[in-house]
Amino acid sequence: MKPVVKSVENPITISVDDAQLTVEAGTTVAGALIAHGITAWRSTRKNERPRGLFCGIGACFDCLVSIDGQPNQRACMVRVCEGQQVDTETAKERP
Amino acid sequence: MSQKIHVAVIGAGPAGLAAAANALAHGAQVTCIDANDQPGGQYWRHRLEQPGRQPGVQPDSTGHHDWKTYLSLRAAFDAGIAAGTLAYLPNTQVWMAQQREDERITLQLTSATAAGTQAPASTLTADRLVVATGAYDRQIPIPGWDLPGVMTAGAVQALIKGQGVLAGQRIVLAGTGPFLLPVASNVAHAGGSVLAICESADLSGWLKNLKAPLAVPAKGIEGAEYIWDLLRHRIPYKRSTVITAIHGAEKVEAVSIARTDKTGAVIAGSEERIENVDCVGLGFGFTTQLELLTAFGVATHMDVDGSLVADVDEFQLTSGANVLAAGEVTGIGGAALAVAEGTVAGYRAALGSGQAPQQSEVAKELKTISRHRAFARAMHQAHQVPDYWSGNLEEDTVVCRCEEVTAGEIIQARDELKAVDARSIKSTTRAGMGWCQGRVCGYAASCLATCGDKHEAFAQSVANTYKRPVSIPVPLGEIADLEDSPKE
Ligand SMILES: Cc1cc2nc3c(=O)[nH]c(=O)nc-3n(C[C@H](O)[C@@H](O)[C@H](O)COP(=O)(O)OP(=O)(O)OC[C@H]3O[C@@H](n4cnc5c(N)ncnc54)[C@H](O)[C@@H]3O)c2cc1C
Ligand code: FES
């Protein structure tokens, strides 16, 4: 079997908070963030703990993030697209 | 319009694809609804097909098994779309299914992602329904399992198969069951390091029941490939070993592991720490995605592995009129079983109401089903969810991830408020009340509430956690629309 992971073949640009990220077309928002080493993009309500991807398939709702102004989107279900704006809660709560 | 039977299939995984393909082959009009944006389900999740290329033409097969089966099911599926006999609704989630007075079935649909395509209609009515909604990784809480970088074993697999993304560079996999092997193998092929596979079972269970695995040689060959991969990549496979704690400040940094004895208790002095871990993949078998069926009130039972599953007859018919089930929802047993069940369900669903089903029409599949069910039973017996974990919880270990309810709070509710099943735990602590509606914590909350009892009270408690009014949280407007709509 050949290696499964390839380098970025079809780069597109998305915005995550104020930063521009070059990501692989066809990945999900969660996949794109993880490929950039970002593992958390939300804080929990009660204890303000960082959260990111957990089930990876849309069952757990841990990966919620705001995408193009729509809050509470499952980052593991939505594919990236050129010019997409992702807003993490972790950034909002930063002073 | 012709008198074709209209079959709705929920799920486009191995079971749903096979059901759709065979219902088409038997002359039905089919609608297949799937939350994902490409057919394949979990097993055949693959990289995004090239836009502009004809659907179904050689999607990426890297990291896959039984890919030929996928391509042939996919060819039938795509031919149905081309012929207008199959309507495929990707990116669409069924949030409620109801039986009408005339015994036809109405489904409520919504877009799976607000950013995705809108479902063409918000309701759909069909003569028959095949529920092939699959399963998700079962979890038990471990101190530190809520740290970023800790995810399900299935998530690690889905990231690689679906996107070519490696969840980390230094990964520890833990839980129980053969599923940890293909995940490890894919991580290694993708260039990641699997520092350890911690299998909680001692595997002696397989020896008690050798006949069942020997009757399914394909599983043996697949298993041998994985073992070869483990050896080649020097991946330590540790039996009777569990993760006792996951450490880190803002994300996972290290894990503690330990060996367990025959009773499942941690052996003192066997603890070890693995440092520089950036990802942990956890999976203790799977939990069926059954709520659309339980909402119907169809008969269910608790399977050997402690999962609630739908009762089906020989032709995959549930106790609900015109409602069939196939794949993991009838018992966790893998993709080959799901395909065989889907094929039978597709045949049965397409039959006219006066026609009696014939075994000879699906003889090969019925044999496959019986061999694979025996295999699954042997697998579940060899890979029981271990008992060690509840003794290992810290007071502040999160059990319900959504509502951040701790083990301490749940145990207090049990002991002081006599909350002895998941439902009363939910009303006293909010565990299971969040976004996921108890999907992730339902099993663990039931174990804690019933003090590890594995019988009646536990089964009842688990069954209660499946009672969800809707299968996913939907915008209130859609529920209001439903209430306003005239009754059919
Ligand atoms: C994350 C994950 C990864 C896995 N990877 C592997 C693997 O690599 N190898 C292996 O042997 N086994 C794997 N499995 C085990 C898996 O259960 C397979 O045995 C197989 O995919 C089961 O087939 P199925 O058709 O029953 O269900 P699935 O393949 O799970 O298909 C069910 C489909 O139904 C859809 N669905 C569910 N609910 C709804 C709804 N309400 N509305 C619309 N659509 C819905 C889902 O999106 C999914 O596409 C994996 C399981 C998980 C959870
Ligand atoms: S990670 Fe579970 S829903 Fe996205």
Automatic annotation (TrEMBL), chain A:
The record's listing under Pfam families reads: Fer2_4
Picking any one GO molecular function of the record gives: iron-sulfur cluster binding
* Keywords for this protein: Oxidoreductase
Could you tell me which InterPro entries the record lists for this protein? 2Fe-2S-bd_N, 2Fe-2S_ferredoxin-like_sf, 2Fe-2S_ferredoxin-type
Matching PROSITE patterns: 2FE2S_FER_2 (PS51085)
**Transmembrane segments in this chain: where?**
none
Q: Where is the 2Fe-2S ferredoxin-type domain?
A: 10-92
Name of the protein this chain belongs to? Proline dehydrogenase
Say which species the protein is native to.
Answer: Glutamicibacter uratoxydans
UniProtKB/TrEMBL annotation, chain B:
Q: Which organism is it from?
A: Glutamicibacter uratoxydans
Q: What is this protein called?
A: FAD/NAD(P)-binding oxidoreductase
GO terms assigned for molecular function? oxidoreductase activity
Q: Where is the FAD/NAD(P)-binding domain?
A: 6-342
The protein's UniProt keywords, in alphabetical order, are: Oxidoreductase, Signal
Annotated InterPro entries: BFD-like_2Fe2S-bd_dom, BFD-like_2Fe2S-bd_dom_sf, FAD/NAD-bd_sf, FAD/NAD-binding_dom, Metab_Enz_Cyan_OpOx_G3PDH, Opine_Oxase_asu/HCN_bsu
**Keyword Phosphoprotein carried by entry:** no
Q: Which residues form the signal peptide?
A: 1-20
Instruction: List, for all copies, the residue spans of the domain called BFD-like [2Fe-2S]-binding.
Output: 398-444
Query: What CDD domains does the database record attribute to this sequence?
Result: GlpA-like_Fer2_BFD-like
Presence of keyword Signal: yes
